[in-house]
Amino acid sequence: MSAFKLHLSIALLSSVFTLAQVNRSVQPKPGPAPEINFGEPQEYKLDNGLTLLVIENDKLPRVSVSLRIDNPLYLAKNKTGLQSLLGVMLGKGSKNILKDDFEEEIDFMGARLSFSSSSANAGALRRYFPRVFEMMADATLNPNFLLEEFEKEKDKLLEGIKANEKDVKTAARRVENLLSYGKNHPYGEYASETSVKNVEISDVKQLYRQRFNPQNAYVIIVGDIDFITAKKLTQKYFGNWEKGEITKPIFETPKNLEQTAIAFVEMPNAVQSEVSVLSTASIDKNNPDYYPLLIANQILGGGAEARLFLNLREDKGFTYGSYSRYSFNHKTKSRLRASASVRNAVTDSSVVELLNEIQKMSKEIVSEKELDLVKKKYAGSLIMSMEQPSNIANFAYNIKTQQLSDNFYNDLLKNIEKVSKEDILRVSKKYLNPHILRVVVTGKGSDVLKPLENIDFDGRKLGVSYYDKYGNSTDRPEFSKPMPEGTTAQTVIDGYINAIGGRERLKGVKTIFSFLEASMQGMSIQVSNKQTDKNQLLVEVKMMGNVMQKTVLNQTTGYNEVRGQKTEMKGKELDKALESADIFPELNIKPEQIKLKGIVSLNGINAYEIKWSDDKTVYYSTTDYHKIQEVESSDMQGRVVNITKMYGDYQAIDGILFPQKITQDMGPQKIDFKVISITLNEPLAPHLFE
To answer: Which of 138, 168, 275, 396 could lock onto 94 through a cystine, CB 3.0 to 4.6 A?
Structure first.
């Protein structure tokens, strides 16, 4: 079943005449590095240890405030997800004001207010700021931890975990973090259904007491406010905050590999591979190597002008983008991550190119052109960032908590300008060492593993270890199951046709009208599907009774309509849609179009995997030939997205078996559709498909 004028002043003329006499054969000398001054914070410390930092800026009648708590890293152990729940539980009113009244007042003032497990941020017009500041303090010091809200947020977190169960990127990041830092490290932990279910509201209250203490708290105010007023407000609303006990967890120290190797994570549903190259090092912003390493990373993978992007996208066409990032950290080791999302067929080649570019950084001196371009881009980005009060607050906070010099950010561009090509080579050899890299590849093993196991780099075949999507070490995954003798793609298709009713009965279906319903975040979704055996199709998707999306096909034409905006289908999009417009696509598929890949296990069910095209794979049960899953890849805004449909609960309608339950991806969520009705061979008016 298929589914969806001009005025010139004398002064200006004079300046143009002057410019025309410039000797353009001589390259102008570069000027000095631009100077920046983000403002010298005025500081005050309350008796309870809280530090107030104020940066006055009267350009706009707005004030922003940030509460930051310099907590040690937190190890949740068997209650991972607790920090997330604490963050979402804060800001839901307070003991003094109900949640709805709290949110209504914030909205009325046009203010913003948000919380995390170790911070709070607010912003408002100057005239409303005192009240917004008071409300932020009240919600921080008098949190309203209601059981009903806790259960709601817990359920949301669990739903999110379930929705991402088969998400390749989620699995990749999870395993990358675990292998980089270790499972007994705060950055190596991940929330699971089990760990979230372990969390009780008492745990949230206890964690709040541990993480919200004034002696390591900073209130940073930026904007149109004088220091005296800011001091009075802070003393008034945070002066009675009592000190608490701060505990530091003990966790393992991240370790690099002794030699570069590959960690493979099996994800059978992957249509592209997530490739990351990782290493850790002890370096922070106080280290003199910080400046050249910052620039080295920008040259390697800092943007569309960087080496990784130019190689893997512009030259090779392996990916839509490849980047690197060096995450500097003063509480644990810093980490390099160079990455790309690539097609299965070029996974091994992408690994080699990533490694080659990193090795090149440590072997060859960079060009003057590259270095100059990156310095200019970085200077521009930094100057642009000064427009954001949140970034100015970050600068002030970092200076205090990372023991940076008072002029660290004011002098940043000067120090960047001093970086030489030789500095880049030196730090690359030290921190971009190509011999101790951890390559993590998450993808479909049956397509990518063999080539990965045969990668030679720098004269050595790279070792490969194997992991499941939770980072557990496993044996090498096996992809081939015994295939019954004589089984081909066509015999499987024939088996499916016979199983659901037989070829003649299926050919007798001239029209079909099906109606499906589902629920998403409390909203009802209805899908009506009207279809004929003449490549005519009408699909309407309604939410809460309103048509949100419509797809129409009429033999040789078609269009999509989203919220009243119609887009005609053309070219490949139209061809692809028409190909799938058959009521029963299996009836007309040609044997040479399909390929039997093998037998795989899907949620415990063995299934024949049949490749219909480069971007579509269909799975049929080995026991009863029922279609159980369909995976189709699609290009959405420069990103390959998998659309998965799962079928179940087959029931007979006029002697033909149809699935009564269809689970489909809808953004990051999976929606369970229930078939309400299916009507066969009822006349459908031609105008429906116009």
So the answer is: 138
